[in-house]
Write a structure and sequence with these properties.
Layout (H helix, E strand, L loop, with lengths): L6 H8 L7 H11 L12 H18 L3 H11 L5 H17 L6 H22 L13 H12 L8 H37 L1
Helix pairs in contact: 1-3, 1-8, 3-8, 4-5, 4-8, 5-6, 5-8, 6-8
Length: about 200
C-alpha cells in the first residue's frame, strides 16, 4: 500500500502498479521464459486502497502544465520515457541559460550537456525521498568524464569554476524550481488526505 511520507514517493507509487503475488509472477517467468498477462488478479482491500490513493495523486499530477508533468515524471515515475527526459533537460537548460549571461552558440551547445548532467545528478540525489540519494558525479572530473563518455564533448577543466561553475549552480536552481512547482499539488493532496484521515 502507498505510504504518504513524501510527495516524491507518492508520485512514484501512484504510477507504479504492484503485483499482488510477486512470487507467482517470478515463477511464471521462470517456467515460461516470459511474463503472460492474466485477467484474473487478486483484488483485496489493500489493492483497492492503493488504487484510490493513486487516483487522487494522479489527479493532482494532471492539474500541472505538460512541461511540469514531464519533469516530475522524468524524476519520479517508473513509466517515464525519453520524451519526458528530453523535455525536462530542455527546461533546465533554458531556465538556467535565461538566468545568466548570454553565451556563444558554441558554448551553448556544450551547456546542453552540462545541463543534462546536472539533471541526472539532481534526479539521483532526490530518488527515494527527501534528498537521500547518492551523487553519481560528485566532482568536476567525474562530470567531465561522463560528458566525454556519453556525448564525445570535451570540456576543459582548468578553468571549470570560471566557465561552468555559475551555470551548474543555475541548473541546480532550475531543477529545484521545477521540482517544487511539480510537487506542490501532490503535496497539497497528501496534506488534505492526511487531514481527513
Amino acid at each position: 500500500m502507498m505510504q504518504l511520507n513524501s510527495a516524491r514517493a507518492a508520485w512514484h507509487d501512484a504510477l507504479y502498479t504492484p503485483w499482488d503475488r510477486q512470487g507467482a509472477h517470478f515463477e511464471q517467468i521462470g517456467r515460461l521464459g516470459c511474463s503472460v498477462q492474466k485477467t484474473a488478479k487478486s483484488i483485496n482491500s489493500r489493492h483497492a486502497m492503493h488504487q484510490s490513493i493513486s487516483a487522487r495523486i494522479q489527479q493532482a499530477i494532471a492539474t500541472l502544465p505538460g512541461y511540469l508533468q514531464a519533469f516530475g515524471n522524468h524524476l519520479y515515475s517508473p513509466l517515464s520515457d525519453i520524451d519526458e527526459q528530453e523535455e525536462a533537460q530542455e527546461r533546465v537548460l533554458h531556465i538556467a541559460y535565461a538566468a545568466g549571461p548570454k553565451m556563444t552558440a558554441r558554448k551553448f551547445e556544450k551547456a546542453r550537456y552540462v545541463a543534462q548532467v546536472v539533471l541526472l545528478r539532481y534526479k539521483r540525489l532526490n530518488q527515494g525521498g527527501e534528498g537521500e540519494g547518492i551523487d553519481p558525479l560528485p566532482t568536476v572530473e567525474k562530470m567531465r568524464e561522463y560528458i566525454l563518455e556519453t556525448s564525445g564533448v570535451r570540456l576543459v577543466g582548468d578553468q571549470w569554476a570560471r566557465d561552468w561553475g555559475s551555470f551548474v549552480d543555475r541548473c541546480f536552481d532550475a531543477c529545484s524550481q521545477l521540482d517544487k512547482a511539480a510537487l506542490a499539488p501532490v503535496a497539497k493532496t497528501i496534506a488534505a488526505m492526511k487531514e481527513v484521515a
